[in-house]
Amino acid sequence: MKKRVSKRYKKLIEEPKILKPFIIDEAIEKVKKNCTTKFDESIDASLQLNLKQKKEEFNLRTVVNLPNGNGKKIRVAVLCEDTKVDEAKKAGAELYESESLINDITAGKMNFDKLISTPSMMSKMGKLGKILGPKGLMPNPKLGTVTNDVAKAIKALKSGQVEIRNDKDGNLGVSIGKKSFTDNKIKENFNILLQTIIKEKPNTIKGEFILSAYLTSSMGISCKLKLGK
Question: By the number of CB atoms within 10 A of the CB, which of 22, 94, 115, 184 ranks highest?
């Protein structure tokens, strides 16, 4: 059967393939130029990290606070004591329960993107690890999602804090904005992402930590980025 190809796609693949890397300003301009869909496409950064040594293999998992957010609405659930429910509600959480939230998760009902837990509720999370873990939703003290300061954690997630982690091949991808963002806002977010990753470089890793980086959009072309000087 002959595949139907849209006019938009045909036009994109007619663009000349330029292999040279671009500085971030040029890449943003080119990627946004090719955001030709009717919706507000995401602008994404993809990086390959040097995480392998002869005898050891490292993994990066942390959070980055994008100064301009990434344009995505985050639904936050808070597993907390009754005394914390009002705080979670006022801070903007969509869900804020204890037993009923646990029952929903057990039943596979997870109408949230991020889950925060107070330390005292973590003892009830053991049975949920097999459900939340594979989806990357398990609260983690290192990522700021296990805390008594519920309001601060909610505010951070709502204002642009995103989790970053590499896959088994050392690749890492994160959305850093939308087509509707100004070029400067996308650039600021990208620079903060780079700074955060570089700070996480293990002392035992020799040579460049970020091997390559690309900028792309949801439905557009990809541009290789020139890193460093």
Answer: 115
